[in-house]
Amino acid sequence: MKEKIKQRAIKYFLIFLAAMLVLTFVSRMVYTERMPRVSCMQIKDQSISHEFEYAGTVEALKSQPVFVPEGLRIIDSKVNQGDRVIKSQLIMKLDIEYLHRKAAMLEKEIAEQLESASAYSSEGSIPVFTEAGLRIAEVCVKAGDSVYAGQKLLRLDGEHLGRRIADLQNEINADISTRDGYYDSEDQRSAEAISNHIDEKQRELDRYTEIYNNGCNVYSSAGGVVAGVPVKAGDVTTDSAVALISSDPSVSCGLSEKQEMLEELRKLDEKKGCIYSPTDGVITAKNASIGEFTAANAVFIVSDISEGIVFRTNIEEKDLRYISVGDVFKLKFRNGKINAEGCEVKRITKTADGSGYTVELTLQSDKLEAGEVGYLKGTVLSEEKYSCVPLNAIHFVESDVRGEIFVAEETEGFFGKEYTAKKYSVTIREKNDADAGIEDLGLSPNSKVIVSSSKKLYDGQKIRI
């Protein structure tokens, strides 16, 4: 009886142990399943590889732009970008009727401006003055008129001048009476002071009288061309010049530009609005279409590849440190069907807008045309070697040069190997699109850097790989 009870107790105990063992494994499995699942990569000591690729174009060493006066209407375009042309070939036609209207309007503007005071440059001109305070009755010349020395320029109002002379004479007579009174009272100082005023007024009276006796006219002091008449009939003269006479007149800058524009329009009219290619070559740029108006920039650029070609591309400033004059690259064209080996960087210049740099490389090929698109692709290794980790393993904080990484640290547990996420702060010394070179943390090359996790990690957290 006792033996049976003992056997039954042992049986129940073994069942209990088995159940506990099963529950322990189940609990472990549940606990493990709740841990973040991570993937890892090892730290590598290597250089950082920088790859870059830029599109550019084949350009001729000799190119000639075709300019047309601004604001003319295009009614026909004979060529497109990439077309080959010969010298004197018709490439575009302008609206001749619109050109005529444009020229007529410009001619009218020039004629009106030539009569204005602003038409001619005043530099080197001889100013003509007259007495201030006199009313102008008539202006006898206009800007652009040729005059000789002694020619009448203005006629002053005789009645106004006569009244001015009479008023001035009365003032002088009154001052003389006052002066005599000072002498009678023996006030020598006051008498001398008013005598000075009388002398000044007498000189002014003499000048007015001279003008009146000359017919109230103002004459040119030199021969030449009237560069400007800043007064008009009805004005009252001031201390400023009433006319400017130039022996070698030059029109103002704005008027000169209009005259040059009119001359260009007349030449186009002689050609019936036709635009011809200035040389043999290929149309590498076209900046105007039918129905549009011409602008200040060239309507066409004709490139002649007979004197050689180059490859030009614009790069960003961040890639400038990877390219320098003298470097040699391989260029690809037409989806890799044409490869150009040994293309040397000849010059690097800043772009006009300052946003990047233009790189020019030598190019020799009898299969390529000006204007074709190609690609410059290069790979450069960093000068130093770093402890490299995948860029996506770094959690950036505050800036793009500082961050944190998690390393899976291995320990031995009851159920075997266990892993804990250990956080490290890192400083990035150099990086590309995939990897980052960090400062040495003293970790072994076999350290497992966590690159992805199913859950957010924190320092000291248990993980599973």
From TrEMBL:
Record GO terms (molecular function): efflux transmembrane transporter activity
Coiled coil (UniProt feature): none
Transmembrane helix as UniProt keyword: yes
Matching Gene3D superfamilies: 2.40.50.100
Keyword Transmembrane helix set for record: yes
Membrane-spanning ranges: 12-31
GO cellular component: efflux pump complex
This protein's UniProt keywords: Membrane, Transmembrane, Transmembrane helix
Name of the featured protein: HlyD family secretion protein
Organism listed in the record: Ruminococcus flavefaciens
Lineage: Bacteria, Bacillati, Bacillota, Clostridia, Eubacteriales
